[in-house]
Amino acid sequence: MSVTNGYDAEVASKIVARFDAKPELLIQILRGVVERFGYVPEAAVRQLADELNLSRADVHGVVSYYHDFRTEPPGKHIVKICQAEACQAMGSRELTAHAEDALGIRMHGSNDDITLEPVYCLGNCACSPAIMIDERTHGRVNSQRFDELIGGLEADD
Amino acid sequence: MARTKIYVPRETSAISVGADDVAIAIARHSKKSGTDVQLIRNGSWGASWLEPLIEVEVDQQRIAYGNVEPGDVDGLFQNGFLDGGEHARRLGPIQDIEYLITQDRWTFFRVGLIDPLSVESYAEHQGFSGLQQAIEIGSEAVLDAVTESGLRGRGGAGFPTGIKWRTVANAEADQKYITCNADEGDSGTFSDRMLMEGDPMCLLEGMAIAGYAVGANKGYIYLRSEYPLTYKILTRAISAAEHAGWLGKNIQGSEFDFDIEIHVGAGSYVCGEETAMLESLEGKRGIVRYRPPLPALEGLFGKPTVVNNVITLASVPNIIRLGGERYAGFGVNRSKGTLAFQLAGNIKRGGLVEKAFGITLRELIDGYGGGTASGRPLKAVQVGGPLGAYIPESQLDTPLDYEAFAEIGALIGHGGIVVFDDLVNMAQQARFAMEFCAIESCGKCTPCRIGSVRGVEVIDRIIAGTDREENYDLLVELCDTMEDASLCAMGGMTPYPVRSVLKYFAEDFAL
Ligand SMILES: Cc1cc2nc3c(=O)[nH]c(=O)nc-3n(C[C@H](O)[C@H](O)[C@H](O)COP(=O)(O)O)c2cc1C
Ligand code: SF4
Ligand code: FES
């Protein structure tokens, strides 16, 4: 479950402390921030730089380098569709087109509920096409299964 | 009366097609009916096409049922499931499933069999005896055994593991590290994940043996973020091993200390390249390093460092236990031992097949895989991930042997085999190779960073039919430049799949 609560500097400090404020653990700390807030807000970049004794440019550099560190708040759920070869061989391009239609958003886009992102292999290539919803991988996903999974999310909320 | 054991995999692929729901349905049913069952969450045997594949233990035999859905559970129980009763889903004893019994399971021999999180279950099946023996025979003998086994790196480059370890062992330093590359970014690959989920302690044991051999007391696992379940399983396995005295200080009363920490990546393919991985482990951008220095001499935090793939490390405990010679007895030529091949994409029986090197692609794809899932003719096979060539039907008799593959301009890499049927448009696949490089390039060298973006544009023009000849020549030139002037294989080998399309599937470019 991804949460997109407002940023809370105290909580961020706790995340830093959990990793003993070690600058070499910046990536792990940023993962913690994304896990908690859903993204890395600008305020977090400033705060982490201060608390880890790094320059803001250092932190920025790392944030911008890695795909997982989004800088915009996502929707309530994150839906990733595998775009890599084994899934292509089983129709991921068609599945992606279907998902974009069904959700009314494009890859990398969000509506209130859902952020749609590409992913390059979920290690589920023998049960392709694969998608991940929040932290959960689903296999053999055709359009119908996709709609069911999305429907299930809406029912839960 | 002993409780009946039921096995339901706790493994990403099995769960992705409903294994958790099946486990819940079984637990519910047994509670409701008052039957006393013991639910064990094992790893996957690797017959992914049969997942969820569950087993019930009857008279010391495990009876398998395949493609089980939650809705099948009540019916299974009604048909005497606990006695291995007949049912449409029944496959028979697990050890009779041909896909599994014909394999050469060296590294994966415990995967599926054991409870991955139980030290007892692991030890019952020779777990930790490799490490025990290593400590008894001493580090020199360990290095000799690994060298003698002929084991080569399974992460892609195929570098001899014995040589790498000896370099680190011979380096003088106050601190050395073992790093396990669990970034598994190649499409079509999942063997690292299956090993870590199905037999995590085997990896921990392999890392500890490496640490003992080279004189390192600290290990890191660099795990990709796309594997959240693997993370949970590994974390629990580490604490169980620590608890049992197989990790930590004075392992089993010896002088040897070894700790393992997991670092999770953040979505970057290049971070699987070993020096980019080291940068990332240091908390930085995953930019590839120049070499020299070799990571073996100046690796993590500038210290001598072993970087090995999961499967490389997990193959070691048995090499120590059974001897390097035994391992070298498998395979052909300079490709010794076994590889956990992964059958993926458009294939009827996808999954993991560990076999000695020398088997042909055709034997794997037709024999094990049963041909395409769609039933349509096979058109191309990509072996070795996104940097691997697309192989046409006519070359399927090539034996899986590092050198034989190099000869046809192809790659074995991490052993991923992705099958495409005749509906694939290979021009699109060539375009994707360039696009993927553009998305994932670390940006350090121009041919890779800019060349890949240009590659996409040029391919788009060829597809659109704009100045075809000129753009074709331009594409070939781009491939040359990327190959010649890139620092790592990302830029240097992206041309492989592209060239293979130009060579074997030119008709899709309408050239
Ligand atoms: C772009 C790129 C990505 C790579 N990805 C991985 C990977 O995900 N896992 C891996 O073990 N090796 C990967 N490698 C190979 C590593 O650089 C390195 O050779 C390997 O980890 C060494 O371990 P081994 O000798 O046990 O194979 C990659 C290489 C390149 C150039
Ligand atoms: S080839 Fe590409 S990925 Fe490799 S170092 Fe150069 S820019 Fe980075
Ligand atoms: S290619 Fe999609 S899960 Fe591996």
Q: Regions of chain A with pLDDT < 50 over 5+ consecutive residues?
A: none
Number of strands of chain A: 4
Task: Characterize the main sheet of chain B.
Answer: 5 strands, mixed
Helix content percent band of chain B = 40-55%
Helix fraction bin of chain A: 40-55%
Structural class of chain B, please? alpha/beta
Number of contiguous helices of chain B:
21
Q: What is the straight-line distance between the termini of chain A?
A: 11 Å
Number of helices of chain A: 7
Q: Give the CA-based shape of chain A.
A: elongated
User: Could you give the order of strands across the largest sheet of chain B?
Assistant: 2-1-3-4-5
Largest Cβ-defined interface: A-B, 41 and 61 residues
| CATH architecture annotation of the largest domain in chain B | 3-Layer(aba) Sandwich
The H-level CATH homologous superfamily of the largest domain in chain A, spelled out, is Glutaredoxin
